[in-house]
């Protein structure tokens, strides 16, 4: 028998390598991200609480916070401070919260829908359409309250959105962001001209319109504001549902379609949300500008490019900005006031320029 020098197979020692344990995925980044979002939400809630407290306490008549608290919990009709808080400052604070929430969310949805960082509810002519129909309600139907304005504002915003989308959809590529922006700009110019024609032909309507058009929280009452709450909540709910859709749209039409996103359904949903939010805010406080433009940029500081979180922070920062502007308008012009819409427009532009210059552009 010839020995080959090889050991039988069964006797061969196999040096089995130790089974490698699956390495755990790094959890530092998600935890850091979650911590950042939590801190951001807490900071924005703190800022909103401070704005609400200032709105109730600061004005031509300064009221201590203790008195404000007692006026809310145990009102005494014989005390002037309690009457001021409950009858004057609570309604305008509620209007500021609702209008700021609506404008912040509408601006975020508009920027995501059009993939345009300079988009706001006025870009697609929504505010101009709502304003035109409100002017018609004032001049031809004698409307004087937000409850009456809201239906005209909704119809005008919806008509403007439909016209812009129909014009922007013409052509081979369909409704692209550039065509929508151009159509909205043209429609805004046309509607603004019509507003001027109506106001010049009716002096009484012009007197009522010029105070409403400045964008103010003054002389608002809860009786005409509370009926608008369901419309704001419905628009906010649709905006929340649209968060994932906006993330897909931010990747471009082709990629979003490849991921299974129905572009027509997404745009219709976002359009309905914008109409509800802009119509409600315009009816309550007038055509306030800049809030819908600046708030999403501030929200991206905390949320990054995820529209689900951008919408959350926009809902918190919108009312904070509007209430802070309203409080500042009371302080700088005592004993009179400057409308919140004017303060936002005056102070907001330099802030946005500083944001653009100091931070890197965030992809939409």
From TrEMBL:
Residues 1-31 are annotated as: Disordered. It is found in: Cell membrane. Residues 7-31 have a biased composition (Low complexity). One of its GO terms (cellular component) is plasma membrane. The chain crosses the membrane at residues 37-60, 93-110, 122-143, 149-168, 180-200, 228-247, 268-295, 307-328, 340-357. One of its GO terms (molecular function) is transmembrane transporter activity. InterPro entries: ABC_BtuC-like, ABC_transptr_permease_BtuC. GO terms for biological process: siderophore-iron import into cell. It is a multi-pass membrane protein. Keywords: Cell membrane, Membrane, Transmembrane, Transmembrane helix, Transport. Pfam families: FecCD. Belongs to the binding-protein-dependent transport system permease family. FecCD subfamily. This is Iron ABC transporter permease.
């Amino acid at each position: 028998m010839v020995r080959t020098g090889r050991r039988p197979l069964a006797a061969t020692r196999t040096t089995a390598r130790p089974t490698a344990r699956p390495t755990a995925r790094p959890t530092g980044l998600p935890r850091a991200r979650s911590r950042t979002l939590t801190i951001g939400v807490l900071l924005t809630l703190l800022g909103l609480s401070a704005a609400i407290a200032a709105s109730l306490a600061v004005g031509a008549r300064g009221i201590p916070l203790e008195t404000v608290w007692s006026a809310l919990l145990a009102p005494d009709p014989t005390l002037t401070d309690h009457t001021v808080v409950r009858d004057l400052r609570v309604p305008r604070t509620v209007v500021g919260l609702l209008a700021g929430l609506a404008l912040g969310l509408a601006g975020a949805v508009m920027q995501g829908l059009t993939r345009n960082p300079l988009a706001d509810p006025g870009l697609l002519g929504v505010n101009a359409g709502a304003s035109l129909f409100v002017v018609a309600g004032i001049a031809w139907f004698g409307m004087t309250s937000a409850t009456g304005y809201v239906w005209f504002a909704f119809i005008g915003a919806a008509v403007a959105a439909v016209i812009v989308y129909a014009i922007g959809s013409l052509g081979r590529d369909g409704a692209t962001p550039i065509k929508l922006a151009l159509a909205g700009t043209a429609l805004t110019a046309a509607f603004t001209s019509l507003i001027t024609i109506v106001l010049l032909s009716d002096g009484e309507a012009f007197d009522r319109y010029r105070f409403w058009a400045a964008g103010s929280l003054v002389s608002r009452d809860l009786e005409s504001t509370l009926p608008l709450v369901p419309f704001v909540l419905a628009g906010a709910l649709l905006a929340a549902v649209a968060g994932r859709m906006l993330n897909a749209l931010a990747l471009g039409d082709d990629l979003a379609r490849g991921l299974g996103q129905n572009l027509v359904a997404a745009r219709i949903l976002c359009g309905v949300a914008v109409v509800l939010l802009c119509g409600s805010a315009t009816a309550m406080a007038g055509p306030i500008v800049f809030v819908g433009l600046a708030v999403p940029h501030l929200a991206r500081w905390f949320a990054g490019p995820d529209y689900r979180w951008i919408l959350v922070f926009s809902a918190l920062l919108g009312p904070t900005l509007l209430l802070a502007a309203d409080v500042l308008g009371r302080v700088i012009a005592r004993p009179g006031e400057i409308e919140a819409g004017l303060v936002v427009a005056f102070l907001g532009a330099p802030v946005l320029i500083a944001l653009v210059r100091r931070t890197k552009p965030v992809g939409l």
